[in-house]
Write a structure and sequence with these properties.
The protein is an alpha/beta fold. 38% of the residues lie in helices and 26% in strands. It contains 9 helices and 10 strands. It has a 6-stranded mixed beta sheet with strand order 6-7-8-3-9-10, with helices on both faces. The chain has a 4-stranded antiparallel beta sheet with strand order 2-1-4-5, covered by helices on one side. The chain is globular. The protein starts with a strand and ends with a helix. The mean pLDDT is 96. It binds adenosine-5'-diphosphate and magnesium ion.
Length: 242
């Protein structure tokens, strides 16, 4: 079953083509990892998927519904997609529990007690239960990012987008965030993530997509991409980062 289909997506900023006819299919429970140099269009692709950007050409389908149709209910689409960015986006004036229950309560209309119960279950699962009443500035960077992921999961999204979620962290804290992502994969979460951590990408991805100048030049299972890349640009990129 296809969760997401990206068909021939083009995006330009001020005449500069950032995405050039990108095709991508993400199946249920699949983990897709986008790699590529800085500026290759990874974040823009994710931002097109969660409708933070409009596409210039092409179409994107979420569970068979065309979400790039201008008549689409943007809020309804975003309810089905969880997103976590590089910088922690927790609300600083709210404790962990309030951060996590905000969207389930306000966007999905879940009752407070139920939202809190579900949030506690998630916190428990990710080893953060004792931090439920803490404020973001009382948490380590790794904990903040784990809470941000828990918060994205609280609305039970069909698809999770993770954009460089470990890039702002000290190496020692990266491990715990990667552990959360690994656990989500084991639980069958469908994800698209971008990362500079090639070893993690290799470990967790079902499919690796290499973007170069807005072109998806190669995609395949990690064993193939990392050991026998077909495209010279992929080889060049990998030799520069590995
Ligand atoms: P990546 O995530 O792979 O580093 P991005 O998608 O962030 O790449 O950026 C791709 C290109 O698009 C870059 O050249 C960047 O400067 C440009 N870009 C991204 N967002 C905008 C924007 N809102 N306005 C203008 N240019 C942008
Ligand atoms: Mg980026």
């Amino acid at each position: 079953m296809s969760v997401l289909t990206v068909e021939g997506v083009w995006k330009n900023f001020h005449g500069h083509h950032v995405l050039r006819g990108v095709d991508l299919e993400v199946r249920s429970h699949e983990v897709v990892c986008l790699i590529g140099a800085s500026g290759s269009g990874k974040s823009t692709l994710l931002r097109c998927v969660n409708l933070l950007e409009t596409v210039d050409d092409g179409a994107i389908f979420l569970e068979k519904q065309e979400i790039t149709d201008p008549r689409v209910d943007v809020d309804d689409v975003r309810k089905r997609i969880g997103t976590v960015f590089q910088a922690y986006n927790l609300f600083p004036h709210m404790n962990v529990l309030a951060n996590i229950t905000l969207a389930p309560r306000q966007v999905h209309g879940v009752a407070k007690e139920q939202a809190e119960r579900q949030a506690m279950e998630l916190l428990e699962r990710f080893g953060l239960a004792d931090r439920a009443r803490a404020y973001p500035d009382q948490l380590s960077g790794g904990q903040q990012q784990r809470v941000a992921i828990v918060r994205a999961m609280a609305t039970q999204p069909k698809l999770l987008l993770l954009d460089e979620v470990t890039s702002a962290l000290d190496p020692a804290l990266v491990v715990e965030v990667l552990g959360v992502i690994r656990e989500l994969k084991q639980a069958g979460m469908t994800m698209i993530l971008t990362t500079h951590e090639m070893s993690f990408c290799r470990d967790i991805a079902d499919t690796v997509c290499f973007l170069d100048g807005g072109v998806l030049v190669e995609k395949g299972p990690p064993e193939q991409i990392f050991t026998a890349p077909r495209h010279p640009r992929t080889r060049e990129f990998l030799s520069s980062v590995l």
